[in-house]
UniProtKB/TrEMBL annotation:
Residues 5-55 form the DUF397 domain. Pfam families: DUF397. This is DUF397 domain-containing protein. It comes from the Bacteria.
Length: 58
């Protein structure tokens, strides 16, 4: 479950090819763990849930 703190998936390895996500008011912000000060991607909650559903179906 996402919170307002950055969170990396427990399924992520130690290779550095990961993303972190955190909950905003009505969206989710995503960043690259290799560039934590770099740009972020913000998506709506519906799009985030759709992404997670699609990934889980793979």
């Amino acid at each position: 479950m996402l919170t307002r703190e950055w969170h990396k998936s427990s399924y992520s390895g130690h290779e550095g090819a990961c993303v972190e996500a955190r909950l905003l008011d009505a969206s989710v912000e995503v960043r690259d763990t290799k560039d934590r000060g770099g740009p972020t991607l913000t998506v709506g909650l519906a799009e985030w849930h759709r992404l997670l559903t699609d990934v889980a179906a793979e």
